[in-house]
Amino acid sequence: MSLLTLDRLDVRHGLLQAVREVSFAIEKGEIVALVGANGAGKSTLLRAIAGAHIPASGRIAFEGADVTGLRAHKRVAKGIALVPEGRRLFGAMTIDENLQVATRVGRRGYWTSETVMELFPMLRARRSSLTGNLSGGERQAAAIGRALMTNPRLLLLDEVSLGLAPVVVDGLYRSMRSLLQGDATLVLVEQDLGRALSVATRVMCMLEGRIVLDGRVGEVTREQIVDAYFGLRGGAGRDHDTKATA
Amino acid sequence: MSNPTNFVVERWTRASVASGVAVAIIVVVLAITPLIGGANVVDKLTTLFVYVILAAMWNALAGYAGLVSVGQQAFFGIGAYFAIQLSAHGFPAYPSLIGGAVGAALLAIPISLFMLRLRGGEFSIGMWVLAEALHLLVNQDPLIQGETGTSMISLNAFSHAERLAYNYWLALGSMLVLLGAIFVLLRSPFGASVQAIRDDEEAAAALGVKVLATKRTVFILAAFGCALAGVLWLATSVTFQPKTNFGVQWTAYMILMALVGGLGTFEGPILGALLFFVVQDQFGENGVWYMAGLGSVAILFALFMPRGVWGEIEGRFGIRLLPVGYHLRLPDIFARKPDD
Amino acid sequence: MSIVNLVAQGALLGGYYALLACGLSLMFGVMRIINLAHGDLAVLGAFLVFVISDYFNISPFLALVAVLPIMAAVGWLMQRGMLERSLRSGMLVPLLATFGLSIAVENLLFEAYGADTRSLAPMIGDLAFDSLEVSNQLSISYLAALIFALAVALLGGLSLFLKHTSLGRAIRATAEDADTAELVGVNSRSVYAIAAAIAVATAGLAGTMLAMRATFDPYSGPMQLIFAFEAVVIGGIGSLWGTLLGGIVLGLAQSIGATFDPRWFLLAGHLTFLAILGGRMFNEWARARGGLRSSLGFWR
Predict the structure, then answer these.
(1) From chain C, which residues contact B within 8 Å (Cβ)?
(2) Interface contact flag, C271 B133, Cβ < 8 Å
């Protein structure tokens, strides 16, 4: 049984269709890089999986159970966590409080305030500071930490490197492997192709709401990815465009 | 994808032209009613016109400019107060009435500078506090004698029949002028600005819309309109009682009419006023259950039919009787396909 | 009346206003809704306490123990049944819905209990009029002091609750960003309902206190709403302790106004409210132009 299965998902932003007929399955333990140009639909797709966006049609199944109609907080209870684009920390609350809010859902596991601060030591020193006063790197760490506190089985990371200095992003990516300690499967949306491919086991490329490339990191070439990114040729690996007609 | 170059933008559709003609006929009939109709009809129609004015004004504020005021009774009352003052100082009756309304509009200018900096619910209750403050201030005037109130004696210079007819025409005239003003404003670039502000103030400001100035214009117009309604009410009842004129029930009526009729539409408040008038006429005597019922109706409409009766009709059938918007007519090849 | 006494009376009155305003402030802080029915709900609480005290012949304080949960349930229902829906439609609809609720409550109360003004004062015996003679200049009513203490206890309790409990944190998170709160596992609808329950329960408490220190009738609601709103705005929206300060300022303004002329009690409050609002706006206006000092430069 796959961890996450999407079946012909259609998500709209008002009148705009952001995600078209997306179908794929993710297995436990994978690290999936979701790449694509701005506006390709990546964030919307992640938000739909997390429950922040209700799809217009299609199905989402998590560990075999249909979660399509489930509200976001119930999905967190099941084990899906999203680190949203722009971090969205609770600025009027401290790091500690931000982490603690995420424990309300009651999922026990490897991740606690202590282990999160081991992973991101810079948080420990500022733990009683309001998150509104932190630097970009600290905020991103706090946001990831907050999601980890729910001990998810599927962790979705939306553009974690956005707006951060390269050396800070280096640190984050070094920690990326450690995220798997808690038994999580990762999907990360990332603009920086190089970074994404450095940690991922699988890469999916989105263009105008569709998945145009889907393959294992060792098997697809960088060229194929770039082509798919810009929509230059048919794309390689599992081609989702034609799946419906097959 | 081919370009739809051969589309037509039009303001007047067949339906709206037909409505325009109908409206013209109705206006003429209404104008001559006092000459042909009985006193009862004239009196009731005057009341209806006042309701239409109130509904249209509240709709202009909330439905178009996005300003929810729970204190329009401030102007309903202060206009009447100014009229009483003018009359007490020797001015003839009807000029005093109009003067009172103008005075209220002038007062609205500094008020707007102040109140419009409040947002959302703060503005709502802020207006209410203002109404209460004005009420209390007016009570201090020895001419008014506190809650006892006073009469506009200069009106007694006219016979009952004359007063009835003059009130009617003043009411009809006011209603037409105000509705006309709204109609013209809506069709102008100003109208687009107002609705842009209602929908998304920040975006509108980013586009260069002068948000504050636009809101101020609508606010002052609504103040003038409510004040006109207030002096008309004074003219029909002759007595001025602060508690009546400054009562919050006027806002309750306005909200109900605008909401039930259809917020943000032109025809909505007219329909709402009509419905309210009929209901008030039939059931108004039932006092408390009636008011409780009205309150429940407001809740139900707010929850389930926020677009109001006219809004639903407009939405479902695509009818717009009076041309305040634009229609885009595309050539037939872009007609919707059956499985869309 | 001596100045000391005047200040004391005004401040204690402020305690009542703070108690009343607490719920309004909470609902606005968490849900950005101004509940136009807040005053009427307070009066509803007073009626319930009155009826239960009267029927079972018990002290209103005892009746309050039963009424508070009832009011909490009313608040919960109001949120889940009515306001939740209207929240999705923007700012206008909740205002309209609560306005409709206000009218419905007032008139249903009238229908059920008639227009008579009532009071709980007869039922609390000596507490209604006993005071402590601190000096020959200053006497403090026990009831007023009790109400003030209740206000402080409530505001303090709420502050602690919000700061240190899991539910309190969930409420703060939801108040700041409901969508993200959902994404970390907080059920925002539940949180809103709980906040509404707390708010309406406090309103019921305040209404009961009003009934003890003064009179009430089905149409007392709107005036209480205005007082609550004035207290919240004067004290600064978003601050719980600010509500206490706002209440005290309002109470003082009204008391001072009344010493000049009893009819100026209400007016003094309204004018103070408008003046503070004006002052705040002027401050903002000045700040936008380089600060209060520079814009007032010619005064130096």
Answers:
(1) 28, 32-34, 36, 82, 85-86, 89, 91-93, 95-97, 99-108, 110-111, 222, 225-226, 229-230, 233, 237, 263, 266-267, 270-271, 273-274, 277-278, 281, 284
(2) yes
The residue in chain C having the minimum alpha-carbon distance to the alpha carbon of residue B306 is: C93
Question: Closest Cα partner for B73 from C222, C258, C94?
Answer: C222
Q: How many CB atoms lie within 10 A of CB A243?
A: 13
The dihedral through the CA atoms of C149, C150, C155, C158 has a sign that is positive
The answer on pLDDT for A187 being more than 50 is yes
Which of C166, C179, C183 faces A76 most closely, judged by CB atoms?
C183
Closest CA in chain B for residue C96: B302
Task: Give the nearest partner residue to A101 out of C179, C184, C187, using CB atoms.
Answer: C184
For the stretch B43-90, pLDDT in tens is: 889 999 999 999 999 999 988 888 889 899 999 999 999 999 998 888
Chains in contact with A, where contact requires at least 3 CB pairs less than 8 Å apart: C
Q: What is the pLDDT of residues B92-122, one digit of tens each?
A: 888 989 999 999 999 999 999 888 888 777 7
Cα–Cα distance for residue pair B55/B64, rounded to 1 Å: 13
**Selection from A243, A245, A212 nearest residue A7 by Cα:** A243
Name the residue type at position B82. Answer: F
A137 to chain C nearest CA, in Å? 19
Q: Which residue of C has its CA nearest to B71?
A: C226
Of A237, A240, A243, A241, the residue nearest A202 (C-alpha): A237
Considering only the beta carbons, identify the residue of B114, B139, B298 that sits closest to C96: B298
Nearest to C166 by CA among C186, C188, C180: C186
What value does the mean pLDDT take over residues C19-38? 92
- If you average pLDDT over residues B233-260, what whole number do you get? 88
- Min distance A72 CA to chain C CA atoms (Å): 6
Which residues of chain A does C173 touch, with a Cβ-Cβ cutoff of 8 Å? 90, 93, 101
Does the pTM of the predicted model rise above 0.80? Answer: yes
Alpha-carbon B286 to chain mean position:
26
Q: Residue B37 has what pLDDT? A: 76
C164-180 pLDDT per residue, tens? 999 999 999 999 999 99
State residue C298's pLDDT score. Answer: 40
ipTM value of the model? 0.88
Burial of B201: CB neighbours in 10 Å, binned 0-12, 13-18, 19+? middle
Q: Where are the alpha helices (DSSP H) in chain B?
A: 14-36, 39-59, 73-88, 93-115, 120-140, 160-187, 189-199, 201-206, 211-237, 242-245, 249-261, 268-283, 287-304, 308-317
From chain C, the residues in CB contact with A104 under 8 A are 166, 169-170, 184-186
**B-C Cβ pairs (cutoff 8 Å, strict):** 121
Tell me which H or E stretch contains C294: helix C292-295
Give the contacts of C210 (CB within 8 A, at least 6 positions apart): C16, C20, C42, C43, C46, C216, C220, C224
- pLDDT confidence of residue B337: 43
Q: Kindly indicate the confidence band of residue B334, based on its pLDDT and cuts at 50, 70 and 90.
A: very low
Q: Which of A117-131, B190-204, B269-283 has the lowest mean pLDDT?
A: B190-204
CB-side neighbour CA atoms (13 Å) of C14: 28
Neighbouring subunits of C (3+ Cβ pairs under 8 A): A, B
- How confident is the model at residue A164, as a pLDDT? 82
**Whether B147 contacts B241, CB under 8 Å:** yes
Q: Which CATH number fits domain B8-329: 1.10.10, 2.60.40, 1.20.58, 1.10.3470?
A: 1.10.3470
- Top mean pLDDT of A27-31, A169-173, B207-211 is at A27-31
**CA distance linking residue B41 with residue C272, whole number of Å:** 47
B chain contacts of residue C272, beta-carbon cutoff 8 Å: none
The three-state secondary structure class of B305 is: coil
